[in-house]
Amino acid sequence: MHKTKELVSINNIKMAVFDLDGTLLNSKGDLSEENIQTLIKAKHKGLKIVIASGRIYPMLQSYIKRIGVVDYVISANGASIDKIDEHMRIHEIYIDQSEAEKVVDFCKLNDIECLILKREVSYYPDRSERLEKFLNYNNISQALGYEAMELAHYNEKFDEYHHIEKLLINEKNDVNMQKLMQFIESNTILKYTKSGKLLLDISSQGVSKEEALKKVCEFCDISLDEVIAFGDYDNDIGMMEAAGFSVAPKNASDKALEAADYITMSNDDDGIAYVLNKLIEMGKI
């Protein structure tokens, strides 16, 4: 199912970086056994395994544990990088407190759902439609022996604007979403990226999956040309373009499909495992 390049054209690969939702995870938000076993096989061949997600780190721990061979985790779209074997955060960029407050105040005034995400606690507003998904993340983590992510409600008196990794907007009304994007562009020094049909991630300038990937490559002394990137949505495109070779599952957004060097089977058909197994067979890993 190639698009513009054949897998045979890939140089030898030393690192693979994977988006989670819509890419490595199936449409139920789960890891297939085929994907897990293929990642383990690739790791045993010497491949560095990197997860790059828009989620904050506490939402990723259960997947890291299940995979068992992850080397680095890029979380919050690049705001944070963790080295897994040393249980150490090696990079972080927080949103400026006054800039975060501007966005939160705008969302309050316009009845837009804005979640405030930190590593230690995530805050949700009144009538949050996203809260149920966060509670599901906690259920999965607790079932695998991890502590639940701390969740807290915020109101008009909220003033905990330090150490924010990202602001997450969950908004069905496209007019409201457009108003917010225009406000960010005109009144803040922040950046935003679409991470889902109804989702907008707001971060500091300089935060992106591709910039974080470059840092991980520096830590590992690996060239970007020796990296293969897998992604399915608009917030993955920079990372896909930075890597030597990029793959999107066929369920990806139009922009991600256009950016990919190769289109594989969907996330429900273990498209990622298919590509890795082919590369192993060809001796590229």
Automatic annotation (TrEMBL):
It holds the Pfam family Hydrolase_3. One of its GO terms (molecular function) is magnesium ion binding. Gene3D superfamilies: 3.30.1240.10, HAD superfamily/HAD-like. InterPro entries: Cof, HAD-like_sf, HAD-SF_hydro_IIB, HAD_sf. GO terms for cellular component: cytosol. SUPFAM superfamilies: HAD-like. It comes from the Bacteria. NCBIfam families: Cof-subfamily (TIGR00099), HAD-SF-IIB (TIGR01484). This is Haloacid dehalogenase. It comes from Mariniplasma anaerobium.
